[in-house]
Amino acid sequence: MFHSSRLPIYLLILISFTHNAQATSTTRPRTSRLSWAGRTFGSAENGIELGKRESNATPSALWLPYDEYSGKSFFDRWDFFDQADPTHGHVTYVNRSDAFSKNLVYVQNDGTVIMKGDNTNFLDRGVFRDSVRISSKAQYNTGLFVLDLNRAPWGCGTIDIKEVQNTMMTVLTGVWPAFWTVGSGNWPQTGEVDIIEGVHDNEHNQVAWHTLDGCRLTTPTNRFTGTLVSVNGQNHTDCNALINDNAGCGIVEWSRASYGPYFDAQGGGVFVMKWDEEGIAVWSFYRAAVPKDIVEGTPDPANWGLPSAELWAQGCDPLKFFANHSIIFDITFCGDWAGNSYATSGCPGTCEDRLIDPANFANASWSINSLKVYRKQIFSGRNAGFSLHMRIPIQHTVAMVGILGLVFSWT
Ligand SMILES: *[C@@H]1O[C@H](CO)[C@@H](O)[C@H](O)[C@H]1NC(C)=O
Ligand SMILES: *[C@@H]1O[C@H](CO)[C@@H](O)[C@H](O)[C@H]1NC(C)=O
Ligand SMILES: *[C@@H]1O[C@H](CO)[C@@H](O)[C@H](O)[C@H]1NC(C)=O
Ligand SMILES: *[C@@H]1O[C@H](CO)[C@@H](O)[C@H](O)[C@H]1NC(C)=O
Question: Which keywords does the record carry (predicted)?
Fold first, then answer.
């Protein structure tokens, strides 16, 4: 009988060492890390294993370091999108060389990563403002995505209702940033997850999912702290992106500190998206409440309490509707904000007026400490001894360090 939670971890380490006797303390080269991208590390088979073990008190999974974007190398593994904004923003997305030469992206000496919309140039009326949209070269299938940021972009926003392609659309005029993931191929075949999408009143973040037909947000409301997005009294629980003006299904965070001036004023915080066979959940923590295990690089969602938002697998298969996701950061201005009629703060003038003056974009910037991706390692115990399921050998030196850290802090 193994009731101690330590034993499986020790065994994991033992196995890691025996399987990787040649592992040295040098970091894996980035290029070989890339080759991990796109590998499915949360299979349905693992899901069944986890389900079986739900009544067992011993931990059934560890989240191990897989990928990290931070410091001077932050921008090395992203593509800069430089086409017209698909959400019809009044924005010019610049390419990599322009982004650096125009100082729209840079890494400070202390390692803080900055991405922003142009906040220095006065524009003629009707001219679009420069900004950036980047997407990770790596594609992920499941994972724990942990974004530590000091501030997310925000700015005065107003809502207009206007006709776009014969449909009445709600159009946000203002700063519209997003941190999201989207799958390869034709949208929305492989799904989209909006993790940070600051709109509305500049105080509450909104989490949303956009998929093909067949995915429903049926998560019981006692499993998350947010509020279902509703339009005209109708809750948007059908995640089908091809209806309701592409609105998808969504949940607005309860916390006022989840976005905008309050979020920035208290030092930002951490957003986490957990995507595994159980579903897709998002947590946000303001700075003072970031769990210790996240700070220490050994995240364990079981410690965090209810997520702000969750799309559970019972209503939507997270391994079927979501695949091959790249991570995206963007900041656009005055784009579509389909299907939402949330009351919003009024700002003077029109979007075009506001675009002219760079001072209006003083807060339209991302300030990021790190973006870390963890992969789930399932291990299962049985009453007659236990077996370890190591479908992917632990070769990652960083992972080893993480596990050692865990053991040292637990002993
Ligand atoms: C980046 O964009 C600028 C402006 O459109 C263009 O002049 C330049 O050639 C582009 N650079 C690359 C490397 O594509
Ligand atoms: C919409 O969802 C909320 C929970 O967020 C619930 O209280 C309300 O009854 C739902 N409304 C409808 C029309 O289903
Ligand atoms: C994901 O990407 C892989 C490799 O490019 C591809 O073979 C697979 O069909 C993609 N999956 C989906 C659901 O598009
Ligand atoms: C930027 O943020 C500061 C601090 O919250 C605020 O005083 C200022 O009005 C903001 N500026 C704009 C243009 O939103």
Answer: Hydrolase, Signal
> Of 89, 83, 84, 81, which is closest to residue 338 (Cα–Cα)?
89
CB of 24 closer than 6 angstroms to any ligand 1 atom: no
Q: Which residue has the least CA distance to atom 13 on ligand 1?
A: 97
Looking at the DSSP bridge assignments, the partners of residue 285 are 270
Collapsing DSSP to helix, strand or coil, 309 comes out as strand
- Reading the block at residue 110, the tokens are 């202390």
Residue with tokens 């017209």: 84
- Cα–Cα distance between 22 and 5 in angstroms, integer? 28
CA distances, 219 to each of 4, 209, 313 (Å): 32, 13, 8
Report CA(188)–ligand 2 centroid distance (Å). Answer: 26
Give the number of the ligand closest to the Cα of residue 212: 3
CA 278 distance to own-chain centroid:
17
* Spatial CA neighbour of 325 closest among 148, 176, 137: 137
Dump pLDDT digits (tens) for 165-216.
334 444 444 778 899 999 999 999 999 999 998 754 567 788 999 999 999 9
Which ligand is nearest to the Cα of residue 219, counting in written order? Answer: 2
Measured from the Cα of 265, ligand 4's closest atom is 5
pLDDT mean over 259-272 = 89
Does residue 79 line the site of ligand 1, with CB under 6 A? no
Residues in the ligand 2 pocket, defined by CB under 6 Å: 221, 227-228, 230, 233, 235
Side chain identity at residue 314, one-letter code: Q
Tell me which amino acid residue 62 is.
L
Helix (H, G, I), strand (E, B) or coil at 133: strand
CATH class of 70-157+172-379: mainly beta
Which positions are annotated as active-site residues?
Answer: 192, 197
pLDDT over 60 (residue 289) = yes
Overall size of the chain counted in residues: 411
Cα dihedral 302→306→307→309 (10° resolution): 140
